[in-house]
UniProtKB/TrEMBL annotation:
SUPFAM superfamilies: Thiolase-like (SSF53901). The active site is at residues 94, 364, 394. Coiled coil: none annotated. This is P-type H(+)-exporting transporter. One of its GO terms (molecular function) is acyltransferase activity, transferring groups other than amino-acyl groups. Residues 9-277 form the Thiolase N-terminal domain. Belongs to the thiolase-like superfamily. Thiolase family. InterPro entries: Thiolase, Thiolase-like, Thiolase_C, Thiolase_CS, Thiolase_N.
Amino acid sequence: MDFKPFNAYIVDACRTAGGKKNGKLSGYHPCELGAAVCDALVERQKINGAEVEDVVFGCVGQVGAQASNVARNVVLSCRLLPESVPGTSVDRQCGSSQQAVHAAAQAVMSGVHDCCIAGGVEVMSTVPIGANIIDGMKAGHGFPMTEAMTEKYKDKMKAFEQFAISTSAFSQFGGAELLAKKYNLSREDVDRFAAISQQRAVESTKAGKFKDEIVPLPVKRKEGASEDIHSEDEGIRANVTVESLGKLKAMFPNGVLTPASSSQICDGASAVLICNERGLQKLGLKPMARIHSLALAATDPVVMLEGPIPATRTALEKVKMKIEDIDLYEVNEAFASVPLAWMKALGADFEKLNVNGGAMALGHPLGGTGTKLLATLVHELKRQKKRYGVLAICEGGGTSNATIVEMMPSAKL
């Protein structure tokens, strides 16, 4: 086998429109949604599905309908991928499908594979957040935190007390508030950003900016299917203002975050077709973008959500770049404090950050968010005829992925 180094190229990227909890996508089995975006890539690029050598899919709630290797079940649910295509599932919490991209990229860069699909799915209407933990505890399988973890971090976790949050386990909510405090973010700061996220999402949807990335699907609610087509993100709220958000009660005493400055529960799937030079030639494909740099970081699991800062720094350092060299940023809006802290720490330009809105408006389908944001990033770079973009996502446990992409000339035609 030829193990000479190759580049990893993004050929195409797509996603479903986000569905609200118990909304327009809630009747879909997660593997049906995953299959829809995989089939869309094969169909759009007019390739033989048998040429895809692996499908790597991210998913956080790997229980119930999302259990038993969701990636393989996605393949078996596809119309255009044969059963000869393998699949493997990834859990790096909210960055799971971004990690799927990293895994697929590493496979084609090494020459082990020439063509892979990376993606992710989460139907939170069917498998609620934390279901795998809650169901495991009910079954007597224990809590994920060990005595050693509790002992190691108990003193730091006392910081949660100021928000009346339990100190018996790591908390993303507590971490988001601690992050806001560490970077001196006020209630007005997070409300303003939440309002801007909604406004940008409204404007981008009206302008049709998501059209090339969204795979339209028939509406399928829990009570049954309809003939309506779901092609716009369901969680967007028009007419949101800083003043209207200021009337909402904070989620915790002494806190600054509200449900509006937090990501929305969301049903959705997304996927990216990744090839190396050999794969492009074999399949007759043109690349949209090249994966320029990959990086990981792990930080304090109590503050938890600060990881995108060191992950981005590492990704930039690996290719001798500065934040000023990047044209657009997608930093997941798990909570408003995450992108705002990232921006402050890196000295980033707010006008380049989440220019089409983010998870506060468009939803955060957990394991499906990484490739969802990557799809938005490469399509927006193409539209603006820009060169470099960065994607960074905070993750449970204090880890983070960062990815820098470079658009290819063929994508600007």
